[in-house]
Amino acid sequence: MPTWGEIQEYARSKYTLNQDHEEHFSLVFGFDNDRTQLINVRHFNAFDKDWIEFRSCICKEAEMAHKVALKKNNDFVVGAIALDDDGEYYFIYSVCLESMDPEEFELPLHVIARTADKLENDYAASDDN
For the chain, what is the radius of gyration of the CA atoms? Predict the structure, then answer.
């Protein structure tokens, strides 16, 4: 089982971090089509276990109907759409640190980046949410 510190070090060694703080960091994930997706990664504790949350902004609340967001959640294998208090839709996924190793950081990172970018491309007015 990796520690949060090991996950952070792994991310630092593979990516240029946009923000780098004790309990969270972010990175900009780039695609071949010149689109980018900001991914926020944070550490938290729930149910007496350490977790990592991956989060990426999709669009503003007004750009996607609530019913559409709920229906899309039914189709995701990993992750879900969430609406924050500021009226922004995010694509999020949480994973328990106990069941992953640093290399397993890559799969959810890529899934969140690709899914959020696709949703952003379909619903947001621009690529800068």
Answer: 15
